[in-house]
Design goal:
With about 350 residues, this protein is an alpha/beta fold. About 35% of the residues lie in helices and about 15% in strands. It binds pyridoxal-5'-phosphate. The site of pyridoxal-5'-phosphate has 13 residues, from α3. Keywords: Pyridoxal phosphate.
Length: about 350
């Protein structure tokens, strides 16, 4: 009798390597233990001691006066932009390839009535200083102009493949903002990755910023939450706005406890993520038909050349059958000439 071919032989999955995103982590044992035993109280009333500890710690790390725990990075950016632009008819200058402009449902406009003015993002995540300056409205100008109030940067810049903005560049944008009496906000969802990759302390990286939004649920692997930091008066206004948006949470120390563990356990592991990402990129670059831009942090974007005659979607499916999870992030699924796959390395998920 001829042995039947095992139907799973070709797709034998012994373990999963999950590279979809750095957000797909599960809380560690230490995080769950901290959550179970967290001291809590009502944080809307300002009494939760664990949230207080997290906010105090983050303000210190970021070199700012105060901090506010928020449910997500999207809400952190929204609150920050709206706090700086609290007058109707405000305009914000931001990159045309940045997260706030592309992936946040246009919330700054639909909820805040803030007008976005985009400036071209370079492939390294920066915007040219002269283009930023040219986009600033002349306050003595005609009555037809909105009023520029804010500039937003993103560090690392996600859509550019996790590129780091230097402290020097950020300072230059900060000086430009000051010169024109504008505020500077940094979407620092992955600011710790940038700090580790550049070898520059995180407070130095954001010194020029009036506010920073930092995701705890990305590279450093907390299950939920973001933090915004800034001056005491900025955070006081932001706290009020958080309540308006429905982001005031009660005994939220349960979540903050996990974030405190993440800060302690995981910032030191980011360098290893970056090494793995570079290793993956080098390997992929040796394969015909694939192109990967230089990797600076934990994000690896793979471009599939047209000559390969296979779509990103198909490759993603093939990999999935072999236990490797990645994401199809082609800019348009209606235009097959752009095919991109994203893999994000985070040692806290199964790889
Ligand atoms: C993920 C991300 C956000 C938003 O964070 P959420 O917690 O998913 O709302 C903002 N900016 C950048 C650059 C991000 O990568």
């Amino acid at each position: 009798m001829v042995a039947e071919k095992c139907p799973f032989a070709e797709k034998m999955v012994t373990r999963t390597v999950d590279l979809r995103s750095d957000t797909v982590t599960k809380p560690t044992e230490a995080m769950r233990a901290a959550m179970a035993t967290a001291e809590v109280d009502d944080d809307v009333l300002g009494y939760d001691p664990t949230v207080f500890r997290l906010e105090t710690e983050m303000a210190k790390i970021m070199g700012k006066e105060a901090a506010l725990f928020v449910p997500s990075g999207t809400m952190g950016n929204l609150i920050s932009v709206l706090t700086h632009c609290d007058v109707r008819g405000s305009e914000v200058i931001l990159g045309d390839n940045c997260h706030i402009f592309i992936y946040e449902n246009g919330g700054i406009s639909t909820i805040g009535g803030v007008h976005p003015r985009t400036v071209k993002n370079n492939s390294d995540g920066t915007m040219d200083l002269d283009l930023i300056e040219a986009a600033i409205r002349d306050p003595r100008g005609e009555i037809v102009y909105p009023t520029t109030r804010l500039i937003c940067l993103e560090n690392t810049h996600a859509n550019s493949g996790g590129k780091c903005l230097s402290a020097e560049y950020t300072d230059q944008v900060g000086e430009l903002a000051k010169k024109h009496d504008l505020k500077l906000h940094i979407d620092g969802a992955r600011i710790f990755n940038s700090s580790v990759a550049l070898g520059v302390p995180v407070d130095r990286l954001v010194r020029a910023a009036d506010s920073v939004s930092v995701c705890l649920s990305k590279g450093i692997g907390a299950p939920i939450g973001s933090i915004i930091v800034g001056s005491k008066s900025f955070i006081a206004k932001a706290r009020r706005l958080r309540k308006t948006l429905g982001g005031g949470m009660r005994q939220v120390g349960v979540i903050a406890a996990a974030a405190l563990v993440a800060l302690q356990e995981n910032v030191g592991k980011l360098e290893s993520d970056h090494k793995k990402a570079r290793l993956l990129a080098d390997g992929l670059n040796e394969m015909k038909g694939l192109r990967v831009d230089p990797v600076e942090t934990n994000i690896v974007y793979v471009e599939i050349e047209e000559g390969l005659h296979i779509s990103a979607g198909k490759i993603v499916k093939n990999l999935e059958e072999r236990g490797i999870l990645v994401m199809d992030v082609s800019p348009s699924r209606f235009n097959s000439s752009f095919n991109n796959i994203q893999s994000v390395i985070n040692n806290r998920n199964n790889c």
